[in-house]
Design goal:
- GO terms for molecular function: N-acetylmuramoyl-L-alanine amidase activity.
- By secondary structure, this protein is an alpha/beta fold.
- It has two domains: about 20-25 and about 75-235, Peptidoglycan recognition protein-like (Lysozyme-like), CATH 3.40.80.10; about 35-65, no CATH class.
- The protein has six helices and eight strands.
- The strands form two sheets. Strands 1-5-4-7-3-8 form a six-stranded mixed sheet, with helices on both faces. Strands 2-6 form a two-stranded antiparallel sheet.
- Helix 1 runs antiparallel to helix 2 (about 50-60) and helix 5 (about 180-195) packs across helix 6.
- Residues about 5-50 and about 240-245 have low confidence and may be disordered.
């Protein structure tokens, strides 16, 4: 979420609504049919390879409209996280990284409390949510699977290729950016980068403000990028932190 350029936002202000954020409904007619499925079908038709088409359709059966891919309720991708589901209106079902490659982590600040961010992401009218929220006390809650596309960046391409992490606090309050939050977020980001082979640099770990077309300023001027990146790199080379769940 985070503050906007034009005004200071709140935890219910939204961060990825509109066509750029892919806010659901008619803007996301591909909710259950991935881009790769369409490309595969078109290629198969073009070359007339019926066997390829049949095999691919069999493998991608769950993307047919009305069919849900079976998943285990409450499974998290980061073992140190607790699960609280976001509203279905605030994200789009996908099968990343198979249909959309993941090559970026985007850092946000909530412009509100931890509880208000959770409440906002559970609200279907909010039309935005991140995959994770990190509290000032270091707790981590996952609200959207990394498989899926969260509406958080205000830019559809960046939504599809990134994992979004909110941080509890306000951009104009440096005291909100606690040691516990930096450390927990760094471990989380290091785990995400390891799962998707994302380089540990500022081209691939960015702030919401750096997303093209955004009107938000988070994580703000008090976010210490040098400190954060050092913590991420340290976490990546230390004893393995809690990582991905192997469940569906």
């Amino acid at each position: 979420m985070g503050a906007k350029h034009v005004s200071t936002g709140s935890s219910t202000g939204g961060s990825a609504s509109g066509p750029g954020g892919g806010s659901g409904g008619s803007r996301d007619a591909d909710r259950r049919i991935g881009r790769r499925a369409l490309l595969v079908g078109g290629t198969a038709a073009a070359v007339g390879t019926a066997v390829l088409a049949r095999d691919e359709l069999a493998r991608l059966w769950w993307r047919v409209p009305g069919v849900e891919r079976p998943r285990e309720e409450g499974v998290v991708d980061y073992a140190a996280a607790s699960w609280v589901a976001a509203s279905d209106e605030n994200w789009r079902r996908a099968d990343r990284p198979d249909d959309f490659g993941v090559d970026m982590v985007i850092v946000h600040v909530t412009q509100g409390s931890f509880a208000s961010a959770v409440k906002a992401f559970q609200d279907p009218a909010h039309k935005a949510a991140t995959h994770y929220i990190v509290g000032q006390d270091g707790r981590v809650t996952q609200m959207i699977r990394e498989l899926d596309v969260a509406y958080h960046a205000g830019n559809r391409d960046y939504n599809e290729r990134s994992v979004g992490i909110e941080h509890e606090g306000f951009v104009d309050r440096p005291q909100d950016l606690t040691d516990e939050m930096y450390a927990a977020s760094a471990r989380l980001t290091a785990g995400i980068c390891a799962r998707y082979d994302i380089p540990l640099d500022r081209e691939h770990i960015i702030g919401h403000v750096e997303v093209p077309g955004t009107d938000h300023t988070d994580p703000g001027p008090h976010w210490d990028w040098d400190r954060y990146m050092e913590l991420v790199r340290r976490a990546a080379t230390s004893t393995p932190s809690p990582g991905a769940s192997k469940s569906a």
